[in-house]
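quick one, two chains, predict together pls
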Amino acid sequence: MNKCDFLVELWTEDLPVPVQEEGALKIESALTDFFKRQKISFSESKHFSSPRRLAVVVFNVDKFSKPEETVVKGPPASLSFVENGQPSAALKGFVKKYAGDLADVRVRSTDKGEYVFLEMRKPRRDTEDIIRSNIAEVLYSVKFEKTMRWAKYSFPRPVRNLVVMFGRKSLRISCFGINSSRMSRGFIAENIKITSPAEYETNLKRKRILADKLNRKDTLLKELQGAVRKPYKIEIEKMENLVDETVGTCEHPRALACDFNEKYLDIPAEFLESTLVSNQKCFPVVDAQGNLADKFVLVIDGDSSNAKSVKANYRRCVEARFEDTAFFWASDRKKALTDYYDDLKLINCQGKFKNLYEKAERVGKDAVKIAREYAPDEEKKISLIAKLLYCDIPTKMVAEFPDMHGIAGQYLAEGTLLDKGDKTLREAVTLFNLTRASSVCGLSDRLNTLKSFFSSGISPTTSKDPYGLKKTADEVLKIAVSSDIYFDLRKLFLLVFDDVSAEVSQNILIFLKDRFSVYLEKAHIGKDVAAMAIDKYEVPKKCLAIADALHEYRGEDPESFGRIVQTAKRADNILKQARAKGIKKAAVKEELFYENEEKNLFKELCGTKDAVYEKLSKNDYSGALKDLGGLKKPLDAFFEKVMIMAKDENIRDNRLALVGEVSVLFSAFGKFSQILGTSSACEAAQTDKKSKMQ
Amino acid sequence: MKNLQEIILKLSSYWADAGCLVAQPYDVEKGAGTFNPMTFLKIFTKGVWRAAYVEPSRRPQDGRYGENPFRLYKHLQFQVIMKPAPEDSRLLYLKSLSTLGIDLKKHDIRFLEDNWESPSLGAWGRGWEVRCDGLEITQFTYFQQAGGLDLPDVPVELTYGLERIAMFFAGKKSVYDVDWSDNVKYGAVRREEERQFSRYYFELVPKDELLEICEFYGREIDKLINAKLSLPAYDCLLNFSHLFNVVDARGGLDHTSRTAMIKRMKNYANSIAKLYIEQTQAGNETQ
């Protein structure tokens, strides 16, 4: 057997969850790159990550590196030797430059005469030796963004044990101040013997350690499912973050169901859930109707032989937290939501507004202006809610659980300001299930935040965004695309930004456009379609719909899509050339058409134009695009048969005018010039599919 | 079943065996055991330093008039500081839990990422909050900086929440029902104090006057640094910091002045640390 498996395991103090997988991957690629550089062959590799270990197994590693041969051409033989065949200064210099040996110098004849060649052979080397002398450097080369120092070393958390094995043999290496061995460790640093790299996973499994993250996640999900009986369940799809966090804080998850005193169910469910999830890292349980039940599921690391007492301890923690939540809530509810309005004066703001009170006043006014334009029937409600969006910020509940902003306000408003079940206030903050009223309030809030910072000269850069303005801009766009209303950014700006300079307003518009480009690029519609559609960003909802329609069209009928694109580009090129020649734009005169093809195109264009604009006005973008596709035939015939650059200037200008009208119609969908050629378009569509699948 | 004083005794003797000096609480009000000069100043000395002590820690904002079973304006921390951090810090800590009678195999012990920071001391570290069956019982930190200075010998700080641990052992839902000793309850020792101080801090604190006293301490710190008296200057900083916490609990500070005061304390901490290092490394302090 000339091949062996190779194992490195770093046992660390508990690693932050985000660096576990990242660290294992980095070590894996550092090691495989290293083997490749050293010409050591292997079949594949696998990484393991857990709170306390980062490990990589490389399979079927050759016991020897490949011998290497390097040949370098040197000076002509005539210049290389002096009397008695002694090497000349030129030859010595050449050999030195390549760190070679005079013994490896050969004279070979070439077409240009005899030359000296340095023929260096690196013999095969022991993989084991190479590993021994290099692996520490490889491990030190792995870099992280957030590290800590201890002793002389640095890593995300201290490394305390090291296993390095090649086949069944453990290799002695010194790294991070540790001598490696075949002994891994368990939770309390107890030894776990590793018999071979291939058996690494099973050796650990026998000690109830699941080193493979995916395996651990599967186990956790099964445990969670099995922990509660029907009709009760955990809404696992909402718990993705907690699942990932839990997978990163234990090596052997076991789920246990536990009750809590039902009296706490009088507290709004969101508060209890927030306490359970953010504070106690436990999974809330709901009944058949989806209402929070007086139960939760906790996950422990390791053995559940002492389940009864562990559960009792968890229950006491959870109930003590609920007790605190009840205290906050009871004291917050002593006042009505509107009673907190004056307290906003005490909360200072960064940027244009002195305090939250000033901002709230403005948000209220702007929301009414937006409402009059876009949702006049909701004006009354909007004027009531918009300025109260921040009123829950001074409450104890929100101070303790910032996530509850909007939700706490909602509960304080319900039954007094708002009808029970009316979630306008909360939606305006959280942007879930946006209604017309909540979109208007939410927009007024976000636009004023952008205004406040930009007008005080604070705008984000690529790397620095301390006030989270990218998120704010993304929220503006989220509202604009997910609301029923087709908000027009320019119109909104006129309403909301009447108290800032045109320059500030323009900067914000450009910022929103840039963010929207990022959004479109991530929407899996192909980068070129995104680049084409962004031209229509001013009404983001419309822009997105056009982009979707284009993408859909390309997917369904790539051939005609490609032809439309070609035609559009052709029209643009003709116009560009004409402009370059200084030909001025004219209006189409029907009487100047001579050829059948141009007459026909004009007729078709008139009909199609009406149909396209009609469909666009009804937001039927796919339909409009299909109508546009109908122009393909008359356009092809026109371009084929009609000589546009006719000698008679009037005829020429009239034909150019016709092409101009075609181009205007096409531009209703953005810039077709951004679409890649047919073959690259297919590629773009395919890579896009791939990224979608990932 | 362990009561509070047994826990303190066990931890003290365990850490004494591990080479720690069993020190005393420092008699100036403070928000955390880190502020005791046994930690904040001693970590700037050269060589090995290990100490353990109980520190009453006051956080006026957490006052609940003695009504909440869980939160206290003043709680007891058991603080361990070891510089440089021993290689087996984690194991030493886990064994201390075993010593207290927590069977590590039978309870769910978890280390959750929590990077401790004390902006007013210019100190931060990397570490965890340690939970036992869901209850946060210890803050475990490898200091990286203090007084805004890099620490060449990285220390480890362990802060046990004594009331929490006592509650865990007693299986009590309220801290006031915990046994301090076999015949004295925690509530009997402390409840009235929680009631009265919550009232004082939330309702009666004269915030403007306290801010003036802060200014007085600020001037003293400048004066004492000039006079090269790092220890009295540090006492003034402790007073400044406590009064700041009191005023802050009263909601008496807007964002800007709050940030400005924290920055001031950080600068004081930096100057004091530098002066202290200068003095100890010149060998002026009796070790």
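Residues 255-281 of chain B form the longest helix (27 residues).
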